[in-house]
Amino acid sequence: MNPERIFEEFPAPSYRGTQQQALRDIRDAFAAGNDVVLVRAPTGSGKSLLARAVAGCARRADEGDPSDATRAYYTTPQVSQLDDVAADDLLADLNVIRGKSNYTCILPEERDTPVNQAPCVRERGYDCSVKHRCPYFSDRAIASNREIAAMTLAYFMQTAGSEVFRKRDVVVVDEAHGLAEWAEMYATIQLGPRTVSFWDDLRVPEIDGIERAVRYAENLAGTCERRKDELLAQDSLSPGEVRERDRLQELIGELEWFVSDYRDPQSPTTWLVDQSELRSGTRNGDAESDEPQGGPLTIKPMNPEKYLQHTVWDRGNKFALLSATILNKAAFCRQVGLDPDDVALVDVEHTFPVENRPLYDVTQGKMTYEERDETTPKIARTIVRLMQHHPDEKGLVHAHSYNIQERLADLLRDFGVGDRIRTHDRDGRDAALEEWKASDDPDVFLSVKMEEALDLKGDLCRWQVLCKAPFLNTGDSRVAHRLEEGQWAWYYRTALRTVIQGCGRVVRAPDDYGATYLADSSLVDLFDRAKTDMPDWFEAQVDRMERPDLPAFEPRSALDGTASGTGGRSGSGSGTASRGRANEADSGGRDGRSSSRSSRSGRSSRSSPLADVWDTDE
């Protein structure tokens, strides 16, 4: 790697904000001999441009011995982030490759067939006459031979050990804050009817411990191998059989990895096993057997350092990990298997004026499982008042779960404002999001799990509501295990990370502006509990937080554009008016907000933390 090249490799014609200083700091961190550099860069700092500059510093083929690793990888866990990279003219030399299922066959009779089900994978010995023009193999060939190959983290991990995508000199991971969680997810093994095609023919024992799970995994791997061999013996497979063959191959690898990792005395991985009860009426082996029968299994790794070593750390010489929310360097390094002493941290200054990204306390109570029924209607009424307050501006509601989303949607329709509400389901989320973004109407989008990788710049969205503190589900065995070990700092830090990510959705540039309203009082408690891990620039937002004066509850005015409170109309597309409201925060300006700050010190519950965050509806 040649870090001195970082400025000439920066792809934009000029710098904005603190990009030049960030490049200088990154260069110095690598020049000092660090193999891993964490770049903590807030929203709008141009992380992708910084990433491209770092990737351009990778050793080139003519700069070393033939055996030296050269070139670079760019990877991100977010598909939408990769889409943004592919659409950015400044990043045109990041050659994107996706999984086979994202491409369609170009044979005349196979136009609607994904490449992973095309004749070349269905028929033994098939010789494709147009393979050189196949969109997948073409993109793969380009990406594997160019200076920078760009792909999702999932594809990057799946290609570990590949002869096509070998070790490179530099690996850049964008949105790296969730690297440990993504690794845990990818290494998790699901065993049940949806993942094992012949599940109903298996005799599944009750798994009473990890040793029993290992023995069962060995037996199941052998069964999968035999079934796969049967499929491979056929001259031609149906698309369904192709999917089964590929899933069997994947499952065999997962099971063998689990067995190998568990039996490796040097592996730091802790494995947990969850088993569902066998549903009544389900055929599962010999019904007359005296041996107790068990249901579907989930085998989960915790802190899978060995998995990351194989799929990430062995793939490059130098690493740049970028994110706005790597909140605690030491804790992050421990989770992903890095020595903090060998990792440098570069902090990029936030350049967005704090008055353009205000937080407002509109808390209505706790959204814990026990208190949700009482609090949700109050939040729905608050959303109506916010719609009155922002009559001509689009809004986003982070509902946290589909259960909360559906309940809010029902209440808002009952209040008579349904014409201004949009929702989505699990299958149509992307289409619904794009339709809402494309609309000029001031509709309010009730979203689920959209706190990250969502760019709502300008008038795409001017205000948002966080309905629930995004605590992890304590019913998850991994979460429960960590909390039993007293890892409450990790728990609060993870929730804070999601909140900070969510707050960044509506303010995307130094001259952009947008308000974030906090409706769950547990969010205010969270700020107290996780204060030591809070970035300075976000702490400034929290310190300025106050309660606004909202219009009295009159649903009709949320639709006809006549707000009845002191907020008044913002004016159709009136960025100036909204900007004015943000800038008058301290003076209790024309929107009628109270000038007094909300006191957070008296809000934090000192009872058992678990009582405040228990949530099992995920």
Automatic annotation (TrEMBL):
Residues 595-608 have a biased composition (Low complexity). Transmembrane segments: none annotated. It comes from Natrinema versiforme JCM 10478. Residues 564-574 have a biased composition (Gly residues). InterPro entries: ATP-dep_Helicase_C, DinG/Rad3-like, Helicase_ATP-bd, P-loop_NTPase, RAD3-like_helicase_DEAD. GO terms for molecular function: ATP binding; DNA binding; DNA helicase activity; hydrolase activity, acting on acid anhydrides, in phosphorus-containing anhydrides. Residues 268-283 have a biased composition (Polar residues). GO terms for biological process: nucleobase-containing compound metabolic process. Gene3D superfamilies: 1.10.275.30, P-loop containing nucleotide triphosphate hydrolases (3.40.50.300). This is Helicase c2. Residues 581-594 have a biased composition (Basic and acidic residues). Residues 402-525 form the ATP-dependent helicase C-terminal domain. Residues 11-360 form the Helicase ATP-binding domain. Residues 268-302, 548-618 are annotated as: Disordered. Keywords: ATP-binding, DNA-binding, Helicase, Hydrolase, Nucleotide-binding.
